[in-house]
Amino acid sequence: MAFPKKKLQGLVAATITPMTENGEINFSVIGQYVDYLVKEQGVKNIFVNGTTGEGLSLSVSERRQVAEEWVTQGRNKLDQVVIHVGALSLKESQELAQHAAEIGADGIAVIAPFFLKPWNKDVLINFLKEVAASAPALPFYYYHIPALTGVKIRAEELLDGIQDKIPTFQGLKFSDTDLLDFGQCVDQNHHRQFSLLFGVDEQLLSGLVMGATGAVGSTYNYLGKKTNQMLEAFERKDFSSALNYQFCIQRFINFVVKLGFGVSQTKAIMTLVSGIPMGPPRLPLQKATREFTDNAEAKLKSLDFLSFTGVKDGKPVASAY
Ligand SMILES: CC(=O)N[C@H](C=O)[C@@H](O)[C@H](O)[C@H](O)CO
Ligand SMILES: CC(=O)C(=O)O
């Protein structure tokens, strides 16, 4: 097999893990969810069990089952399924990496261990290397999210010489607003075929200008179509349209950020927009309030991101733009 199989590019939705009202994983809606992303949002890559998927709040056995269900349901529909396998325990991470390879995932990603932390680049690389080695045929991505892990080792520094240590290294998911660091990841690796994926949805246009090859984020679940329009405008060098799209997306994100925005709220918004029940989050997260959902709904409508197109089984049917 040629390595890498194919480069990960374009939009990657960070999937939500649907749950039932009593907190169990609701596997039954994942098939529908895949179809929704592909058909309604034009998003054909997913990032499973990450921040948005509450991956670190699931048991190892649940993580395996969730990964397997997405791979199964995504077969012949999705381009790439990347599984986040980061964990505090190296052993668990290795087990999940090996499992991702066994089920036929397209790549694995790992965050820095965030309780007992690596304090320098070499230690972090050693940890990542041990995980990557458990899935030697899978592209490996580092998931840089310093605000949540507290591990502030700069991505540019980490990437320097990384392929000598981790031969399967294929790229980075960069969830930080430091465009100097991100720009230098691009600049110093322009001759390598890395996927440098930007992870701050409200600033993606800046990431594209800096050379991002794609993006991973939570809002692509329901604003994928809008964001794809921005990517297309950028591609054809229509920067004023691209900026209009970004501002439109920013108006929504800015609005919800002020109300308090996180994974719980993402679940509520996705339920509203897609009509697929995402359920509540798991503790320590708390379900979004009714007030939040009502406000978010009004904002989506006022921005023309959402319109109700009809009624089915007594419920309004929404369609996203
Ligand atoms: C912290 C977090 O969850 N970041 C997500 C991915 O990295 C983003 O997709 C954000 O949800 C998004 O940019 C909105 O702030
Ligand atoms: C946003 C993202 O990539 C995650 O939820 O992990």
From TrEMBL:
Which SUPFAM superfamilies does the entry link to?
Answer: Aldolase (SSF51569)
Q: Which UniProt keyword terms apply here?
A: Carbohydrate metabolism, Cytoplasm, Lyase, Schiff base
Quote the catalytic activity from the record.
aceneuramate = aldehydo-N-acetyl-D-mannosamine + pyruvate
The compartments listed are: Cytoplasm
Pathways involved: Amino-sugar metabolism; N-acetylneuraminate degradation
A GO biological process of this protein is:
carbohydrate metabolic process
Q: Which residues form the active site?
A: 143 (proton donor/acceptor), 173 (schiff-base intermediate with substrate)
What is the E.C. number?
4.1.3.3
Q: Which CDD domains match?
A: NAL
Q: Which family does it belong to?
A: Belongs to the DapA family. NanA subfamily.
PANTHER family per record = DIHYDRODIPICOLINATE SYNTHASE (PTHR12128), N-ACETYLNEURAMINATE LYASE (PTHR12128:SF21)
User: Subunit details for this protein?
Assistant: Homotetramer.
What protein name is recorded for this chain? Answer: N-acetylneuraminate lyase
**What species was this sequence derived from?**
Spermophilus dauricus (Daurian ground squirrel)
